[in-house]
Amino acid sequence: MSGTSVAHFYDDLADDYHLIYADWEASIRRQGDALDALIGRDRAAVLDCSCGIGTQAIGLARHGHRVIGTDLSPRAAARAAREAAHRGLTLRTAAADMRRLPFPDGRFDTVVCADNALPHLLTSQDVRAALAEMRRVLRPAGLLLVSTRPYDDLLRDRPASTAPQVHRPADAGERAVAFQLWHWHDNGEHYDLEHFQLLSAGGEWRVRARRTTYWALGRDRLTGFAADAGFVDLAWRTPQETGFFQPLLVARSGK
Fold first, then answer.
1. pLDDT tens sequence for the chain (255 residues)
2. What PANTHER family does its record include (predicted)?
3. Helix ranges, the chain (H)
4. CATH value at residue 86
């Protein structure tokens, strides 16, 4: 899938993205807490290179980190900056492709690529390019945090759908249900995802459907790509260990 089509998927989702969470504010807090604990230092220079509408970036900014967010979707990145400002936080954002990051070498202490963003890249060449860029912009011994779906388990079962997620608003103004249908390719590794949102306003329900494609990258393959890019001390951490909602590949950039 081209970068243009992925950007369109998230541009179209940007205004409603928070509705995929049962409680977006709680998710911002939990994810920020978990990632901050892994960073383990104060006021780190952090790049969130797939920031979306700011779920992880805002959570980290609340912990005092100096965060810059980039995303392939201009609308999502712009919303992340607005959401941070609404909460009294500073978050610089820009539209950028993680395969071509617009920063000098050694700019950051930590790079975050969370919420299954890397598997939007569908070839080994593109994944390698993105990881090489993440390593390039990290300082020596800088920290990489990449989260994906638990693909080793999913590749065994190849599910066709996800359970519905109900958004529970603080008031009666926003009601939403989200779920996904997965259509696996013949190669058994890639899948087309159809994302459905049922949105209620004024007693009437409307349906939004969006489509994108992922590569179900297992742990060993992704670890190998990261090692080839020059990362060291590679380890996978489970949600039970970290409190983050997805498995995390944790690595260092080397010296």
1. 445 599 999 999 999 999 999 899 999 999 999 999 999 999 999 999 999 999 999 999 999 999 999 999 999 999 999 999 999 999 999 999 999 999 999 999 999 999 999 999 999 999 999 999 999 999 999 999 999 999 999 999 999 999 999 987 766 567 899 999 999 999 999 999 999 999 987 778 999 999 999 999 999 999 999 999 999 999 999 999 999 999 999 999 987
2. 2-METHOXY-6-POLYPRENYL-1,4-BENZOQUINOL METHYLASE, MITOCHONDRIAL (PTHR43591:SF24), METHYLTRANSFERASE (PTHR43591)
3. 3-13, 24-39, 55-62, 74-86, 124-137, 151-157, 219-228, 239-242
4. 3.40.50.150
Q: Amino acid letter at 141?
A: A
Q: Do both 178 and 131 map to the same domain? A: no
**Domain with 64 in it:** 16-149+217-252
- Tell me phi and psi for residue 90, to 5 degrees: -100, 120
Question: 228 and 190, same structural domain?
Answer: no
Cα 132 from Cα 126, distance rounded (Å): 10
Q: Please check whether residue 148 is in contact with residue 113, taking contact to mean a CB–CB distance below 8 angstroms.
A: no
Residues 13 and 11: their CA atoms lie apart, in Å, by 5
Indicate if 62 and 135 belong to the same structural domain. yes
Question: CA 205, CA 150: separation in Å to the nearest integer?
Answer: 32
Dist. CA 31–CA 109, nearest whole Å? 19
Give residues with Cβ within 8 angstroms of 152, minimum separation 6.
218, 219
| Single pTM value for the model | 0.96
Joined together, the tokens standing for residue 149 give 């779906």
Same domain, 83 and 192: no
